Amino acid sequence: MKFTLAVIAAFAALASAKPVQMREATAQDHVEAPENNSLIAGTPISAQFESLRFFEDVNFGGQAISISGSNNQCSNLVGFWNDRASSIQNQGGSTCIVYIDSNCSGSTIVFGPSTQISSLPSGWNDQASSYQCF
C-alpha cells in the first residue's frame, strides 16, 4: 500500500513538473560581426539568408553548424568554428563568399546557390574565418 502511494505521488510530481524552456539559437551564438556591422540581437538563426553549413571534417562529417543571417553583411566565425571547417555547403539561394581571414579579408572561395565542397582545397582545411552572402 505504501509503495503504491509512493508511485502515485511520484507520477503526480512528474505530471505537474514545468517543462524546460529552450531558446532558439541566434546568429550571435556562432558568429561575430566586425565593428562596422552589427548582428541584430534576438534575430532567429534562420531569419534572413538561407543556411550556410560548416563541417568539422571532410565529406560533411564531424560537428556541423548551420548559419543564416543578413545578406551583404560580413560575419566572423568565432570560438570553436574559427579555423575549423573542412567541408562547406551552401544550402540556400544566395551566393556566399568564405574568407581565410577575419573581417572578410584574404583569400576567398565562392559558393554559388546550392553548392558544396566535400573537401576544401589545399591551404584551406581548417582555415575559414569569415563569410558574406549576397
TrEMBL record:
- Stored InterPro entries: G_crystallin-like (IPR011024)
Which keywords belong to this entry?
Answer: Signal
Pfam annotation, one family: Inhibitor_I36
Is Signal tagged as a keyword?
A: yes
Q: Where is the signal peptide?
A: 1-17
What name does this protein carry? Uncharacterized protein
Species of origin = Calycina marina
